[in-house]
Amino acid sequence: MNNFLNITDEIIKIATKKNITISTAESFTGGFITKSITDSSGSSNVLVAGIVAYTLFAKEKFLGVKKGTLDKYTAVSKETVCEMCEGVQAYTNSTIGIATTGFAGPNDGENNGYCYIGFCIKSPKIDKTIHKEFHFTGDRNRVRLKATEVALRKTLEIIKEI
């Protein structure tokens, strides 16, 4: 069951009307964003691709995150999330690339819930990469769902601006 059907329905409706496409590069959310979008009818008009890049190897190989970035800043950093969303946007030529990286828990101790969500937007009206740091509370599932909700709400906001 999609907890975000109202948001994703609106994303699909507006994005289809504006000819906006989306791709995702998810790490700790494990495909939740992509699944939420595909739960809405008409998602094939908007979603280009969803990549779950959980390991460092996958982030480098499939998203073009630089090894130097991962070595210097780690997988959970603003630098990495920016390279992830830029990589998926460029690879798929979508209007918006969405990326997540973080610690869902429970084995990360005080880092549980610490994450970054990033967006690479390439449109005639907006051309930029943005990111934000979050620290969600709760168990593993709650952290992942909260990050998914925040990413979808921001996606809707961006689509309305384009």
Could you list some keywords that capture this structure?
162 residues, alpha/beta, 5-stranded mixed sheet, 45% helix, globular
Question: How are the secondary structure elements laid out?
Answer:
Elements (H helix, E strand, L loop, with lengths): L4 H14 L3 E5 L5 H7 L8 E6 L3 H8 L3 H7 L4 H15 L3 E7 L11 E9 L4 E9 L4 H22 L1
Parallel strand pairs: 1-2, 1-3
Antiparallel strand pairs: 3-4, 4-5
Helix pairs in contact: 1-6
Task: Describe this entry's structure for a reader.
With 162 residues, this protein is an alpha/beta fold. It is 45% helix and 22% strand. The protein is built from six helices and five strands, in the order H-E-H-E-H-H-H-E-E-E-H. The longest helix has 22 residues, at 140-161.
